[in-house]
Amino acid sequence: MDVTLRPIERRDAAAIAALAAELGYETDEEDVVAAIPIVKREGAAFLAMVDDQPVGWIHVYRTTVLQTRPFAGIGGLVVTEAVRAAGVGAVLVGAAEEWATAGGLDEVRVRSRSTRAEAHRFYERLGYGVEKTSLTFHRRLGLD
């Protein structure tokens, strides 16, 4: 399978939203359009194409916090079910790692929902190890 990557563009918003929905992340094209310039300013995002069709994307960003050295975080990685386990995800992660290295970052971190066992095995095959288990807390602030 011949996979090509390119930076995401505004015209990719519908495809990005549709791919995100495959993993249960409900967003709409308008929200993606609004996020793209911010994502590109604060990190990078790449779209994977096979036969001129979008089949996956990855978002990577720099994190600077007080308690650790700066690192790259994978904000999202989605590969359509039709080509999952065919190497597209590895190509996307490789692009994120290259972006991190080019930015002087020597570590990439990714969070994966506890129920996504296949994703865990995928990252482990790429050499990622479990650093810790934690909980994510969430509170809506009512700004809607």
Task: Give structural notes.
The chain is an alpha+beta fold. About 35% of the residues lie in helices and about 25% in strands. The protein has four helices and five strands, in the order βααβββαβα. The chain has helices at about 15-20, 30-40, 90-100, 115-125, and strands at about 5, 45-50, 55-65, 70-80, 110. Strands 1-2-3-4-5 form a five-stranded mixed beta sheet, with helices on both faces. Strand 4, helix 3 and strand 5 form a beta-alpha-beta unit.
- Cα(first) to Cα(last) distance is 44 Å
DSSP strand (E) fraction? 15-25%
Poorly predicted ranges: none
Helicity range of the residues?
Answer: 25-40%
**What is the structural class?**
alpha+beta
Instruction: Give the overall shape.
Output: globular
Please tell me the overall pLDDT.
Answer: 95
Biggest β-sheet: strands ordered side by side in the sheet: 1-2-3-4-5
Number of strands: 5
Radius of gyration: 15 Å
How many helices? Answer: 4
Run of helices and strands: EHHEEEHEH
- Main beta sheet: strand number and arrangement? 5 strands, mixed
